[in-house]
Amino acid sequence: MFEEGRLYAPVTTAADGAVTVHLDEDHPGFGDGEYRARRNLIAARALRWTPGDPVPPVDYTDAEQGVWRTVCRELAAKHERLACAEYRRAVAALGLPADHIPQLEEVTARLAPLTGFAYHPAAGLVAFEEFYGSLADGIFHSTQYIRHHARPLYTPEPDLIHEVIGHGGVLAGPRLAELNRLAGRAARRLETPSGRDFFAHVFWFTIEFGVVWERGELRAYGAGLLSSYGEIEEFRGAEIRPLDVAAMGVQSYDITRYQPILYAADGIEQLLDVVGGFFAECDDDTPARLGAPARLGAPARSAASARA
Ligand SMILES: [Fe+2]
Question: What are the catalytic residues?
Fold first, then answer.
């Protein structure tokens, strides 16, 4: 994803066609040659894929299947207490398997009848226009790799668990899927760096890290919170501010820690009204119309689910 660029491991293609995923030295899989070879293979197949072809399946190892089972079990219990009702209903309808990692074709087969969304494979970072813009067409660009099995409840980069349990669950609900489509259409209207930057920050504080009040309790609807084993337990301790597009669009964030500031909607209806309204109408002049001040400090762009 565009705003998650700093967290995605860079992917390069050599002159001879060899594809390499460059993991950081502190990545749990850095010293695991077998894992790194698999990451290279998964990325290479995603790069070679063209729309219309079957999405190349990944031959996940037993260890990776175990990671999926562990995370599914742990997150399901947390979602009962901490996820918003809209998401819990959507996840129940989606029916993701808890006993095996779904291939992207299976995710699409489950999503399509619900909201028409389809999952396309991504090797890593996807350009702004392609990632966000494709949401307008009901397409979600998803990584296919799984975090390293040495640390099943932590990932330094968005992996299939974030993409499918986080975003996929959200995209299974008609109202939140429509909010994503609106975001996609907005992204296609934006051309200036400032307009895109403002939009990406609103996306971050809503689609990735949004929270909503439900019967006096704060609940998560953001994919980054919903897929994070650690942060989902901590978001109620953040500074909670009222939903405010003008403020979110200029609020800097630090991807390397749990979010200290979150914006809460009074309900899903207010989210759809306020943020849906913003996505429906925003253009490159919107930040100026909203009187957005210049952002203080360099915006930290990057990603959801970078933490445990
Ligand atoms: Fe994400």
Answer: 162, 167, 208, 227
